Every structure is written in structure tokens, then in C-alpha cells.
């Protein structure tokens, strides 16, 4: 083999880049006093609306299931516009698109009114928008912090090298999603901020769920936010990118956001919102609420992935959901876009059937799931679940208008199903960020809400029924030991509508020792 001087120089340069960029380290985390949620004072618009309802129902919280994407966007925007005291916002993903830009403008305008804004983002997504996010922090009323940040602040190569050299740390992410206004009103569930979560995408939109709520449950969610905000896992963005936090950058961001908002008024999505019943209800602050004293806000600890203990001890969300499912008398419904139950989860679900319970599960089909590795992990347990009497449905793909068929081995959620929910005995409902997979159990911080209310449970159950109807999903069964998929009119003896590439990647993922990362 012939090696030239130029080739040697290239190798040396690559090695130097690997060392320099791979050895990036985080700056010292600034020490300072802990900050916490601003107490309720009774003098804001939300105080005056919510206060009397709470006084009439001591100890109870009111919940409203948000299944419609347009309503989910409107509730965030309009409640943010009503904020007079505080906005505490926590997300895994915040896209730079129509809905992301408009909600960012709501944060700026709230801060301009004197509202204290705390924005907490996971850095896996935030890093790519570092300069815009840093500009927000230049506002005297906006604080921005990043969970488990990258030391390198721009460039794919630096991120890749840091991922390789610090994989065990970088692999731990914050998957929580919270929007808390004046410590009076909150929205939490499965939705990130982006067009596909709010039915605004021209391509594929997610089927997702949130709960909007008032009462003591909001105080518990605020306490969870404070725990993250003050944790050792979080860095102020000004300590990572001090030069990007400038009033000039903020002024430029504000001007561009305001100009964009004017243009956005003419988009079909924003124009269609004017005639939406849920938007009208949100404007009038007349959301129908189901009141109950029986609820739980479940939230993992920020340092969850660093704890050396069994999963049920490290994941508060898994523990709470496992207890609720274990107490089922008759029926368990589970909805999870990413579903890798593992040996113990499979045994628990089959055990419920053996004890006389009915267990029904909806997840993505291979054709609908853009993360082939996850489907590969799930497929290893499919026969055991079916042999044990568990009923399975797989959601059909929702094709984009351009017919694109993107897939990755380890990409983010890209299928049409994004809801993470459960219904137990038609009485208890769970809505959250928690997928039934090893990543949610051990690697990601998660949150969720259990609500003991038959109306909320019936609403989630109705969504399950609609999503498992023949037009939307295939039922998976066993015939002489072989898998079959059927929607009542067609039957398949292999993964329906899945290309060879998808089947190959799923099979490879099943062979590789990657299940703990899924």
C-alpha cells in the first residue's frame, strides 16, 4: 500500500481534530442561590379565574384532555399571553418553525410585560439553535438553562466527537414537557414544541396527548420544575456561550420574530384557528374540567441515570405506572409509540392475562416507525406477548404529502403515533412523556400524570378505539405459530407496507446488543 505525505498529513490533522474537539470539557457550573416558583398572590387574571373554582373544591385538581393539536398550540399561546407573574417552560425539543417561533415570541412578549420567564431545554436539540436561545437569555426577565449540555456549542463534528468521547454522559437526556403559567395553569404530556406536534405540518403530524390542569397538581409540577432548574445536571446558557448572550442579538431576534408573526397570520393554519371551537373556549378561559382529588404527578429525578439501583427505584414514572397497572382488576390499555417491554415487562403483561385481566396494546408498525432499531427490539417480544394472550395492534403509516419514506436506525420520533398513555379499568388514565422502552426506563428523565377519573379514562379509551379501528391499524395475531397482520379486509404474513430496507434494519437491530439503548 502506497502512503503519500499528503495522506499522512490528513491523518495527522484528523487525529489532532479528534483530540482537540473530543477533549472539550464543560466549564465549571456556576454556583448560586436556588430559585423557585413564584407563590400565588391572587391578583392575576388566572388567579381570579381559577381561585374560586379551587375554593369550591378543596384538595381537588381539574383536568382537561388535549387530544387536538390545534387546541394544544392555542392553549400554550393564549395561556402564555395571559401570564402576569411567571412562565416556567421545560421541553426536550423546540423546533425553529411556525409554531416554535410564535411560542418563542410569546415568551419574549411576556417578559416585556414584566413576567419572569424560566426556559429549561434539553441540549440534544437546543444546541443546534444555540445562538437564538442564548439571545433570549439577554432579556432581564428571561433565564435559560440547558440540561446535560454539550461543551462544544456549534458544528456537527464537535458534537459527534463529544458524543464518542463522552457517550455515557451525553446519552442521558431530559424528555420532560411542561408549560406552567403563574403557578395556576399547566400543560404536560407527550408534545414537544414544533409543527408536527400541533397539526401544523404539511407532511406527517403526530397523534399526541397532553393534559391541561389546575389545582394542587400544578404546584407539584412546579416543584418538579424547580428540582430540575436547580439541579447539578443543568447549566445557565450564559456560562456556555457568554458571547452569544447580547442585547443586540435579542433585539434582532425580537424584530425577526415580530415580522414573522405578521406574516404567519396569513398562513392557512393560523387562519383556520379562528373558527376552531377549542380555540374559542381557550380564549374565553372556559375549558371543561374534570375534578378529582385522586391524581399523581410522576417525575423522575434529574440525576436518574447516575443512580445505581433497580429501575423501579430510579424511575418514579415507571414505579407509579407499574403500581397502577398491577392494581388493575379487569382491563389494561397501553399506548406507546416505542414499545420494547423486555423480559420483565413481557412477563408482567402476560401475568396479568393469566390472572384474568385483558391487556391491549397499540404501538407503531414498522412501516410507521422511523426508528428501525426500536421496532427490532419490540419484535423480539411480539410472539411471547401474543402467546400469552396480550392483544396487539400496530398503527398504519401516515404518508407525507410528498411520499417520503425516511428512516434511521437511531433517529428521533418520526412516526404518526407519539401518544404515551394508558387506561386502567376504565377509571384511571395515564398521560406523559414515558415510552415503554429501556431508554425511558433507565436513560431519559421522564414525567407523567395519573388521573383517577372515569371521564378522562373514557376519553383516552375512545382514542384507543379509534386508533385501533381497521382504517388506522393492523391487528397482529398468531396462526400456527406465525405472525399475521390484518385490518379485516387484507391479511399479511410479513410486516405490511414495510420496505426491504426497513425490514433489514429492524432485523439488524434485533441481532445487535443495543436493546438497553432503545
TrEMBL record:
GO terms for biological process: cardiolipin biosynthetic process. It comes from the Bacteria. Residues 170-197, 413-440 form the PLD phosphodiesterase domain. Pfam families: PLDc_2. GO terms for molecular function: phosphatidyltransferase activity. This is Phospholipase D family protein.
Amino acid at each position: 500500500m502506497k502512503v503519500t505525505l499528503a495522506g499522512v498529513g490528513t491523518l495527522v490533522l484528523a487525529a489532532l481534530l479528534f483530540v482537540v474537539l473530543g477533549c472539550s470539557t464543560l466549564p465549571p457550573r456556576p454556583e448560586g442561590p436556588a430559585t423557585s416558583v413564584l407563590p400565588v398572590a391572587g391578583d392575576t387574571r388566572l388567579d381570579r379565574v381559577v381561585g374560586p373554582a379551587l375554593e369550591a373544591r378543596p384538595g381537588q385538581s381539574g383536568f382537561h384532555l388535549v387530544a387536538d393539536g390545534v387546541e394544544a398550540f392555542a392553549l400554550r399561546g393564549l395561556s402564555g399571553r395571559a401570564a402576569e407573574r411567571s412562565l416556567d417552560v421545560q421541553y426536550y425539543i423546540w423546533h425553529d418553525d411556525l409554531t416554535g417561533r410564535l411560542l418563542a415570541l410569546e415568551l419574549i412578549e411576556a417578559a416585556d410585560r414584566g413576567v419572569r420567564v424560566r426556559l429549561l431545554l434539553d441540549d440534544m436539540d437546543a444546541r443546534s439553535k444555540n445562538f437564538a436561545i442564548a439571545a433570549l437569555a439577554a432579556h432581564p426577565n428571561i433565564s435559560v438553562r440547558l440540561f446535560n449540555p454539550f461543551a462544544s456549542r456549534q458544528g456537527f463534528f464537535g458534537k459527534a466527537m463529544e458524543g464518542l468521547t463522552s457517550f455515557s454522559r451525553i446519552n442521558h437526556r431530559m424528555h420532560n414537557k411542561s408549560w406552567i403559567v403563574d403557578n395556576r395553569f399547566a400543560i404536560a404530556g407527550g408534545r414537544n414544541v414544533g409543527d408536527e406536534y400541533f397539526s401544523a405540518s404539511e407532511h406527517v403530524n403526530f397523534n399526541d396527548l397532553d393534559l391541561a390542569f389546575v389545582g394542587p397538581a400544578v404546584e407539584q409540577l412546579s416543584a418538579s420544575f424547580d428540582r430540575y432548574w436547580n439541579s447539578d445536571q443543568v447549566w445557565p446558557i450564559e456560562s456556555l456561550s457568554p458571547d452569544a448572550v447580547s442585547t443586540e442579538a435579542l433585539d434582532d431576534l425580537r424584530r425577526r420574530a415580530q415580522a414573522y408573526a405578521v406574516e404567519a397570520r396569513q398562513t392557512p393554519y393560523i387562519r383556520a384557528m379562528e373558527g376552531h371551537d377549542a380555540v374559542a373556549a381557550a380564549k374565553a378561559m372556559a375549558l371543561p374540567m374534570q375534578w378529582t382529588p385522586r391524581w399523581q404527578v410522576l417525575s423522575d429525578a434529574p440525576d436518574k441515570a447516575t443512580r445505581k439501583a433497580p429501575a423501579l427505584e430510579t424511575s418514579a414514572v415507571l414505579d407509579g405506572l407499574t403500581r397502577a397497572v398491577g392494581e388493575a382488576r379487569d382491563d389494561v390499555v397501553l399506548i406507546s409509540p416505542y414499545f420494547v417491554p423486555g423480559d420483565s415487562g413481557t412477563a408482567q403483561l402476560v401475568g396479568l392475562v393469566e390472572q384474568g385481566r385483558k391487556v391491549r396494546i397499540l404501538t407503531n408498525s414498522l412501516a410507521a416507525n422511523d426508528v428501525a432499531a426500536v421496532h427490532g427490539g419490540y419484535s423480539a417480544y411480539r410472539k411471547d406477548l401474543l402467546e400469552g394472550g396480550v392483544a396487539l395492534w400496530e398503527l398504519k403509516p401516515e404518508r407525507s404529502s410528498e411520499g417520503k419514506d425516511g428512516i434511521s436506525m437511531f433517529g428521533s420520533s418520526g412516526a404518526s403515533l407519539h401518544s404515551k398513555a394508558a387506561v386502567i379499568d376504565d377509571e384511571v388514565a395515564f398521560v406523559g412523556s414515558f415510552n415503554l422502552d429501556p431508554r425511558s426506563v433507565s436513560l431519559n428523565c421522564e414525567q407523567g400524570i395519573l388521573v383517577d377519573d372515569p371521564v378522562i379514562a373514557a376519553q383516552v379509551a375512545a382514542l384507543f378505539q379509534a386508533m385501533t379501528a381497521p382504517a388506522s391499524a393492523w391487528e397482529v395475531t398468531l396462526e400456527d405459530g406465525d405472525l399475521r397482520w390484518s385490518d379485516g379486509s387484507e391479511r399479511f404474513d410479513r410486516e405490511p407496507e414495510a420496505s426491504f430496507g426497513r425490514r433489514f434494519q429492524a432485523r439488524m437491530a434485533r441481532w445487535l446488543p443495543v436493546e438497553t439503548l432503545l
